[in-house]
Structures are given as structure tokens and as C-alpha cells.
């Protein structure tokens, strides 16, 4: 059975999609961009953007009863691959151990609202 996951602690969807869907213990989180859920404003600057994206992912994981420890796959989309090292360091800081999820990082020409970073994630819990 599919359960839609929604929290006001992460930005509302800006299109016809859900923040996340939980199916048989697997959580599929839509791509998160650096929007502050409280103000609805975009965060600027790659470091601040990346922290906000990770906070948004954390809020959705928490709503589903999970944490970054449950993450099994992440996809990072960057507008500029020159930001890779900064994003990578911040991303890694949100995990408690070296049991990182599988991941790819790709450069794209444009992201929603013209942000610099977007991250989607898949997590699993028995």
C-alpha cells in the first residue's frame, strides 16, 4: 500500500507531486531544493543551499519515522560541478557513520527556481 508523506517542516510541492511516498518500507523522497519551509523563500549561496536541502530531506525522513541512517540511494543535481567538493562535504556531515547510501551526482543546465542544488533520496526501514 502507498502512503503519501507530507510535513510542514519541509517545503510544499511546487507541482503535481508529493514530498514523498512510502511503499512497503521504502520511502521515495522527491527532489528537495533550498526553500525555507517557514518563510517559503529561497536560500542563496551553495553552502546554505546544501544545508537547507539536507534539512528538508531530514524533515521528510523524520515524518516517515526514519533518519539518514535509513537512506539507501541519493541523487544530487548540481548546476555547476565546481560546487561538488563543497556539496559533498556538507552532504557527508549529515550521516552518522561511513555507511553512506549509493549515490550519483550530475551537472544539469537548470533546476527548478534556478537553484544551484537539488537532492532526491530513497530510504528503507523494515
Characterise the protein shown here.
Helix 1 (46-63) runs parallel beside helix 2. The chain has a single domain (2-124), classed as 2-Layer Sandwich (60s Ribosomal Protein L30, Chain: A). The protein has 126 residues and is an alpha+beta fold. The chain has 2 helices and 6 strands, in the order βββαβαββ. The protein has a 6-stranded mixed sheet with strand order 1-2-3-6-4-5, covered by helices on one side. The protein has helices at 46-63, 84-92; strands spanning 2-5, 20-23, 26-32, 71-78, 102-107, 117-124. It holds the Pfam family Ribonuc_L-PSP. One of its GO terms (cellular component) is cytosol. This is 2-iminobutanoate/2-iminopropanoate deaminase. GO terms for molecular function: deaminase activity.
Main CATH class: Alpha Beta
Number of helices: 2
What is the domain tally? 1
Measured by DSSP, the beta-strand proportion falls in: 25-35%
Give the low-confidence spans.
none
* Strand line-up across the major sheet: 1-2-3-6-4-5
